[in-house]
């Protein structure tokens, strides 16, 4: 296969690790060139807790994607989630030296960089600074201030914060797996890129990504991200409950959930029974589907109610903040039967299941367009965007990574990289520190 510009997204989940290679086709859609997945061992509730296992799983997924596509993986965009993620609102301003000059990209960068310098709690670090709306000389509600005149540029920001140690552990796994870290993105942001349409983001929508270890939430209104949260429960706790409640082993519980599970107990008749082979010569167990659904229902209700609390925290009940497009469910957990109806029942909001086919090329394999791969596809889109811009969105301006990434590309891309290197940013210091830390950690 011919080489060319291609990018890689790596989703390090609690249940699976997915490496996905792709590029933009001539219609601006994402064409998937290869995909690899492996069972994720060593990640608990979205946080790496066993480095060696995680490295092995990453290598497995990456190898499979490489074999699948015939391409070599170098730099990857990785997602981060976990219960240590929190978000806050912050406003900041800069005073411009020359108000006769129009506001440009550099002014916005300067303002964002200023927010990155905020002092966080010990052991915490800012992952994303997402501008909400701007004010220029007191004139409010400006979405795009570039090209305007003004002396004081102000903005409200949605700031996403995570634990330094968790971020470093992810970086460590990537490096030890022989890869370069292109960027770290918040997983709910990645999933929303892949699953939501622009109209939904404008109207107001809550994306709920139910993974194995965590349930991620991202709320959009007027096209801007307004709220993010990570809830430390996912499909894994449902399986755990079935295991405990029916006294069976995890593998059987998982299969039961996928094949026969439903979030709505009323659906099952009392006489529907599944027989499960006993362990090593023991009698088979008989489980009624009604009981199975009751167990699942209890836990799902708990997860949805926690998410709904977050939606209310954002202010969904105020008229101006109403989420007109309702809820979009994605992630592996969203494939649970009758979940959509249950979510609508609890929240009273319109709900649909989100498939990551919004931006994929038409001939994409159906399996990849499953909610299971929403985060992976979103991370790939982020990687493709970064490639196009020649710079990293968000915090991580990892110079060296981009030098490597551009080494094999055409001269034009090389030129972009040079321009980028000339514009030294505050975060080079950060990335050098991270690199040093990772080198010394060996």
Can you describe what's shown?
Keywords: Cell cycle, Cell division. The chain has 442 residues and is an alpha+beta fold. The radius of gyration is 23 Å and the shape is globular. 38% of the residues lie in helices and 26% in strands. The chain is built from 13 helices and 18 strands. The chain folds into three domains: 1-82 and 164-196 and 358-442, Nucleotidyltransferase, domain 5 (2-Layer Sandwich), CATH 3.30.420.40; 86-163, Dna Ligase, domain 1 (2-Layer Sandwich); 197-356, Nucleotidyltransferase, domain 5 (2-Layer Sandwich). Helix 1 (51-69) packs across helix 3, helix 6 (235-246) packs across helix 7 (250-260) and helix 6 (235-246) packs antiparallel against helix 8.
List keywords for this structure.
single chain, 442 residues, alpha+beta, Nucleotidyltransferase, domain 5, Dna Ligase, domain 1, 3 domains, five-stranded mixed sheet, globular, cell division, cell cycle, Cell division protein FtsA
Strand content: 25-35%
How far is the first residue's CA from the last residue's CA?
36 Å
Structural class: alpha+beta
Overall domain count: 3
Average residue-wise pLDDT: 86
Rg from Cα? 23 Å
CATH class of the largest domain: Alpha Beta
CATH architecture annotation name of the largest domain: 2-Layer Sandwich
How would you describe the oligomerization state of the chains in this entry? Answer: single chain
CATH topology of the largest domain: Nucleotidyltransferase, domain 5
Work out the helicity level. 25-40%
> Which overall shape is indicated by the principal axes computed on the Cα atoms?
globular
Write down how many β-strands occur, each being a DSSP E stretch of 2 or more residues.
18
The main sheet orders its strands as 3-2-1-6-11
Number of helices: 13
């Amino acid at each position: 296969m011919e080489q060319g510009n291609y990018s890689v997204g790596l989703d390090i989940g609690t249940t699976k690790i997915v490496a996905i290679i792709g590029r933009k086709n001539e219609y601006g859609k994402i064409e998937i060139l290869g995909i690899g997945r492996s069972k994720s061992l060593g990640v608990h509730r979205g946080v790496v807790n066993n480095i060696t296992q995680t490295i092995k799983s990453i290598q497995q997924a990456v190898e499979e994607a490489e074999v699948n596509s015939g391409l070599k993986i170098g730099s990857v965009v990785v997602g981060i989630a976990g219960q240590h993620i929190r978000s806050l609102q912050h406003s900041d301003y800069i005073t411009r030296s020359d108000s006769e000059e129009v506001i440009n990209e550099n002014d916005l960068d300067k303002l964002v960089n200023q927010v990155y310098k905020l002092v966080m709690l010990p052991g915490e670090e800012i992952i994303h600074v997402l501008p909400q709306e701007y004010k220029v000389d007191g004139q409010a509600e400006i979405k795009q201030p570039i090209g305007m005149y003004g002396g004081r540029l102000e903005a409200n920001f949605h700031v996403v914060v995570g634990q330094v140690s968790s971020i470093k552990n992810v970086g460590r796994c990537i490096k030890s797996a022989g890869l370069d870290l292109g960027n770290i993105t918040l997983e709910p942001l990645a999933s929303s890129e892949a699953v939501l349409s622009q109209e939904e983001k404008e109207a107001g929508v809550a994306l709920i990504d139910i993974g194995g270890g965590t349930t991620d939430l991202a709320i959009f209104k007027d096209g801007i991200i307004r709220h993010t949260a990570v809830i430390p429960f996912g499909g894994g706790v449902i399986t755990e409950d079935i295991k405990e409640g029916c006294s069976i082993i995890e593998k059987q519980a998982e299969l039961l959930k996928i094949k026969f599970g439903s979030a709505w107990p009323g659906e099952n008749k009392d006489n529907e029974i599944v027989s499960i082979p006993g362990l090593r010569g023991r009698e088979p167990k008989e489980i009624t589907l009604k009981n199975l659904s009751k167990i699942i229902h209890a836990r799902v209700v708990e997860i949805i109610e926690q998410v709904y609390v977050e939606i209310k925290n954002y202010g969904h009940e105020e008229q101006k903040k109403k989420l007109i497009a309702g809820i979009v469910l994605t992630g592996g957990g969203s494939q649970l039967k009758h979940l959509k109806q249950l979510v609508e029942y609890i929240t009273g909001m319109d709900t649909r299941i989100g498939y990551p086919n919004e931006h994929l090329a038409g001939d994409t394999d159906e399996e990849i367009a499953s909610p299971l791969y929403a985060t992976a596809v979103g991370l790939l889109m982020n990687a493709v965007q970064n490639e196009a811009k020649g710079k990293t969105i968000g915090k991580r301006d990892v110079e060296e990574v981009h030098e490597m990434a551009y080494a094999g590309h055409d001269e034009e891309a090389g030129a972009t990289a040079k321009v980028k290197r000339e514009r030294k940013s505050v975060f080079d210091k950060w990335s050098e520190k991270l690199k040093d830390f990772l080198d010394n950690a060996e």
